[in-house]
Write a structure and sequence with these properties.
The chain is an alpha+beta fold. The chain has helices at about 20-30, 40-50, 100-110, and strands at about 5-15, 55-60, 60-70, 80-85, 90-95. It is globular, with a radius of gyration of 15 Å.
Length: about 120
């Protein structure tokens, strides 16, 4: 059943080792998944989304992990992002889950986010 949702949380940057790429970090997160190395980036993001739905997002070449509170009932659709001093990004988003989802709200807002 569709309903309104309110999410409040923080996107925390996933720490990389010295010379890590995002792809290397995702491979570590996925551990033993079957990865198509022919199209590595697309394969990794597809596997990541399938296994960790609504948990990981890419913003300006960095991978972020969503520490989300449980969804709550809400009203009108919106998404607000704020950059924190520690590099994390706080978010508050509200939407009707019959027309969109948490990951779409965050991803679309990140596309235009300029802290």
């Amino acid at each position: 059943m569709s309903d309104n949702e309110l999410h409040i949380g923080i996107l925390k940057k996933v720490e990389k080792l010295d010379d890590d790429t995002i792809e290397m970090v995702i491979i570590r997160i996925l551990n033993n998944e079957k990865i198509d190395y022919h199209d590595l980036e697309e394969s990794l993001f597809d596997i990541l989304k399938d296994n960790f739905y609504d948990k990981y997002f890419v913003f300006k070449g960095e991978l972020y992990y969503a520490e989300d509170t449980e969804p709550h009932d809400s009203g009108d659709a919106f998404c607000e992002l704020n950059k924190n001093e520690d590099g994390s990004i706080s978010y508050v988003t509200s939407f009707y889950n019959g027309g969109t989802c948490f990951s779409e709200m965050i991803e679309e807002t990140l596309e235009t986010f300029n802290p």
